[in-house]
Amino acid sequence: MSLSVPQNGVKGDNEAVIELFVKAGSDGESIGNCPFSQRLFMILWLKGVVFNVTTVDLKRKPADLQNLAPGTHPPFITFNGEVKTDVNKIEEFLEDVLSPPKYMKLAARHPESNTAGMDIFAKFSAYIKNSKPDANEGLERGLLKTLQKLDEYLISPLPDEIDHNSMDDVKVSSRKFLDGDDMTLADCNLLPKLHIVKVVTKKYRGFEIPKDMTGIWKYLSNAYTREEFTNTCPSDKEIEIAYAYVAKRLTK
Known about the structure:
Elements: E1 2-5, E2 18-23, H1 35-47, E3 51-56, H2 63-68, E4 76-79, E5 82-84, H3 87-97, H4 111-115, H5 120-129, H6 133-155, H7 185-205, H8 214-223, H9 227-230, H10 236-242
Parallel strand pairs: 2-3
Antiparallel strand pairs: 1-3, 2-4, 4-5
Helix pairs in contact: 1-3, 1-7, 5-6, 5-7, 6-8
């Protein structure tokens, strides 16, 4: 599947020709489960640049794609015909070349926003891949601990939310995302992973992020209202299919 984003966008004469290649879903066409693909998809969407998206069926990788990026799996991009394959370097490159005043700056202003929730996906992977019942409780506690740390960051006011000249003490942050009311590179990295954690743990472990983690639930709810997230996200069913053989049954 190939489409232009935004679909009503018109590319100017001097604009770069950008194509994003992402993992295809189980049908070979829809968006597949890959947080790194979604991360780059979100960045380009948030930048407001016109670009093309091609989903790549890893089971039937076309010959022209193998020639374009031999030995490379999605995600990768071509920028004016030049192939770029390292996700972190692509992020840095896009932030550098798609810069103000024409394009939004997406870097977080607070360094802590870049590391918030960084341990969650590793703890989730250990939890979901475990097949030993006696290890399950400890791994679940480890996941909960990292989620709690993220929740605390999300509900804690950022420095610029605190008015030191005011008598009122701001105890709970009112921001929508990690670094403020606007999505940043930090959200593009964390949100796809956090959504996978929510979907997969419920399906294969009957685990739900505790409702009292109001910071995380508000964060996810805000993401679900944004087309930059929802239109780049695989379906829940696609995520469940991707983890059908990864998630281990607890067996004695």
